[in-house]
Design brief:
Layout: E1 3-8, E2 13-18, E3 22-25, E4 32-36, E5 42-46, E6 49-55, E7 58-61, E8 69-74, E9 84-89, E10 95-100, E11 107-113, E12 118-122, E13 125-131, E14 134-137, E15 143-148, E16 154-160, E17 166-169
Antiparallel strand pairs: 1-2, 3-4, 4-5, 5-6, 6-7, 8-9, 9-10, 10-11, 11-12, 12-13, 13-14, 15-16, 16-17
Length: 171
């Protein structure tokens, strides 16, 4: 096996060809910076920790030992807070968080708990979650749950007001 370094001055590009694996190391160490496996994974390292790996099915994002793993998604060049989303696998619990930066600081949108609840938030306030006996809906004021068909037509509503009145509305 051999490798070839091709530097074309006219094209202004440099190419490295290899018949095997290839790696970049931190100067004078055996610490990986990046590793490319022939017909396989691309591995990127941050401060010696393998944080991103490509697979045949997609990518794996890993956090350092005892630290969460984060995936940041920035739409529209990420030039506004409302363009930014964060997906976090927590290290201290079996939880997955989806958060947004629309209001200028990170706010919860969805929290998924392994073997447990799913929590939905509106403007960083928990409104709906699952539990062992079903679901809970919470608000400081009146609550209305709309029942819709697949076509989006409202079929009716369950309504609860702050005076503990529960009613059914036919829309």
């Amino acid at each position: 096996s051999h490798s070839i370094l091709d530097h074309s001055q006219s094209a202004g590009s440099m190419k490295l060809y290899s018949n095997g694996n290839f790696a970049f190391f931190k100067h004078n160490t055996t610490e990986y910076m990046a590793r490319f496996v022939k017909d396989g994974a691309c591995e990127l390292y941050h401060n010696g920790t393998n944080t991103l790996i490509t697979t045949g099915q997609g990518i794996i994002v890993k956090g350092p030992q005892d630290t969460e793993a984060n995936l940041f998604l920035y739409a529209d060049e990420g030039d506004d807070g409302s363009d930014k989303w964060q997906i976090t696998a927590r290290a201290d619990s079996s939880e997955l968080w989806i958060r947004n930066l629309a209001s200028g600081s990170w706010e919860d949108s969805i929290i998924v708990k392994g073997n447990g609840a799913v929590e939905l938030f509106y403007d960083n306030s928990k409104k709906f979650w699952t539990n062992a006996s079903g679901i809970t809906v919470q608000d400081d004021g009146d609550i209305q749950i709309r029942l819709q068909s697949d076509g989006g037509n409202t079929r009716g509503s369950v309504y609860a007001d702050t005076n503990d009145y529960i009613g059914f509305l036919d829309d």
